[in-house]
Write a structure and sequence with these properties.
This protein is α/β, with parallel strands linked by helices and 322 residues long. It is 34% helix and 10% strand. The protein has an eight-stranded mixed sheet with strand order 1-6-5-4-3-2-7-8. The radius of gyration is 24 Å and the shape is globular. It binds cytidine-5'-monophosphate.
Length: 322
Amino acid sequence: MRSYKTIKSFLAICCFVSPTYIIYRLYLVREGPPCMKKSCGCETCITDQGVSHWFDKRFNSRIEPLLTSDNQNIPPAVLLWWLGLQSKHPKLSFVHSRLFEIMPKSDPLKTDDFCRCRRCAIVGNSKNLKGSNYGELIDSQDFVIRMNRAVTKGYELDVGKKTTHHFMYPESAQDLEPNIHLVLVPFKPRDIWWFSNVLSNGNSASSYTRLKRYIKVDKDKAAIFHPAFFKYISDSWTEHHGRYPSTGMLALIFGLHICDQLSVFGYGMDSKGNWYHYWENNRLAGAFHLTGVHNASFEAKIISRLAEIGKIQLYRGRREAS
Ligand code: C5P
């Protein structure tokens, strides 16, 4: 009697589940999984169109962020602009050959997975991180992107300890833990020379500051920021305010292109416009904003606008002491 009841309820379940499952399968074949209809697998995606005209006018998904063998074309106009940023008499052919010696074959960040929901944290170096307690939230993201001389040891509670990508240029270079992707930001031709040297025989090139001869880095995970992507940010996002965009701005727009959702931490100057760091007590060393290299207030406006339209989640931290 009991087993009869069990069989009956089993059959009842089968009668309900099977047709539902068949209908669902048919739906998938015809329509694709629900995420195929959106630009990613998250509830909202950075690349969702029509949210903001201001954003859609600037964001160009066709421009790829990394220089790879598959994406090695540097249009002459980009090359001229890029080489002119810091050096007046660059040797074009030399830079070109060095570039192609060290770039990876393909973009490690690209996927064809439409259902992907990649959540990222970009962590700038602002002092507003001090006492913020953001560490856990930062570490919970899929990618954590840091930059320049960022340190985590001793600051884990506020900045977290996970890093997947680290942006740097020769003057801001430091050793990285294994498994972290180094992204070189080549601000000038000599940066390419330095990069290929530190990845091979050791560097002997000099700069306005002492450069590291070697850095500990996972060579297979090293990548170069594409000069065309750099120019795109200068043209479309910072619109030529400042001589060129800051590392933080480059990293943030990079995040918009490679992530589906983006949380932004550690951006924010003090009331006088100084870019103080969370690991330093550099009250006297902040006049950089007056040099005109980057335009901190214009960049801050872009970041606020992105937050207003919901393309990023901006965590402002604690107000910096001025
Ligand atoms: O100073 P540094 O360039 O290493 O900092 C990385 C980035 O963090 C900057 O390029 C800037 O975009 C951001 N930053 C900021 N406010 C600060 C310090 C840094 O917005 N107080």
